[in-house]
Amino acid sequence: MLTTESDVPAHRIPELTDLLRTAWWMTDRTPADVQHLLEHSDLVIAITHHPTNQLVGFARVLTDYAYVALILDVIVAEPHRGSGVGAALLDAVVTHPALADVRSLELVCQPDLIPFYRRWGFTEQVGTSRLMRRTTDRRLTD
Fold it and tell me: What is the predicted pLDDT for the residue at 60?
């Protein structure tokens, strides 16, 4: 059984930090970083597995609630991948009432995840738009 929540309580921040660190682009996250990103994200979705009470999925959204919502840091604990946790996570994001009037939901993903995200209508066909980045984090450009 899974529980979906729109909040990550303070006592779960170390657990969320550990989960986020399993992704190559977040290996250096600290509990203070995670607290900061939670405070400054417009929407967060956390999934807990019961009866183990483990945090097994997370995503966050930055949005203006009208034109664009950017889905970030989508992560599922490795032992739970392929079990429906990712689907529950994306369902919770794309059907969230606060995002109902947003024109465009956007995300960045690795090529092997394109088929997964297509199930919710995401496409890599974005016209002539190109992702551009200015960063000091070499992991994001190599």
Answer: 97
